[in-house]
Amino acid sequence: MRLALFVLLFLLSGSLMAQIENEIRNFVDSTEILINNGRRLLIKSLEEDNPEKANQVYTYLINASGKDICRAFSYDEQMCLSLIFENYQAWIDHAINFRQLYATYNNSRDDNLYSFLRQYLIRMQPDLLQRINTTALTDEDKALIQLFLHLIIIDRADDTYNQMLKDFKRLYPQTRYAVFFSDYMPGVRVKAGSAFGMGVSGIFPTDNLATGFSSNVGFNMSWDFNINNIYTSLYMQAGALHVNTPFSMYNNFQTIDFDNSDSFSYIDGGLIMGYFVVRSKHLHLAPFGALMGTNLTSNLYTDPDDEKYEVKIVNTFSYGVGLKTELKLFEYDLHNFYGYGQTGKSYFSLKTEVGYNVLAKHNFEGFRGNIAYVRATLMWGFGNF
Q: What CATH number should be reported for the domain holding residue 355?
């Protein structure tokens, strides 16, 4: 008896599932079909340069979908269509009430309507901007619509967009579009980049230090960070300075004679901070200040235990000023497996720096002087040049 009851229930449940499957297969959402056909007709009307008919289709779809869960357009499409049909008040209302309205739109459509509307706005941009300027809208409304239109057409927050956004916020600090800016529009883009490089340095002692040691070519490394107009760099440069004039020096152990065949190890390294007076797509120009440590030491001994007997002509904190120029050689897309497969920018550039460092302390009065330098560095950068 129990077995028969179990079999009966199993058959009934199977029959019920089959019935539901058939209903799902045969279900037709007439509103969805209407909207999809209407969207295609809207594109066709605009392609045929018939904006009046396109506006009629648009109005019909808005009324047909109403408060239905299946909206006819995404929020982005709605904003573009409001501009195309010059319904500026609807555009303004949607911008002011962004948080309330955005979630009510179907923002997951994957057809090509938005791409088509963007291309259509590109074609009508000159006339549209002229008509916007002749409307009775406030200057704030006009400025925001122009900013939005630039973003849609360029399809990214470029330097022009950044400047337009800065100007808008300066002119209208208490804007009624604050939520629209914070939740929808891109913020001011930070122009950031980083670069690593290696190159050669010309090291030039001055004053009495130049009497004792000759200039020479050395090696340098740097790691630069550029954020908007601020330039920073961690660097080091090293080389050998040959004795220029023979001299004798006591090293707490014995008196040593140095002649022209001897060389001293030179190294300095520290932090550079500057300001870009020019930061274009291909050229950098930035005066800077620098803080570093500087060391000029003899090479008498090979045993590390005897290092304390080396003669340190210079071993001090230093500070200086200089000027950096950098020329971008070429740029390329850097493909990666991160960031959802998006590409980044990378570049190679040639950086030159000239500067003058002041030594804060001198171990020997006979070698008072400072260091001038010229550096040429091949840089490999990531991000914005």
A: 2.40.160.20
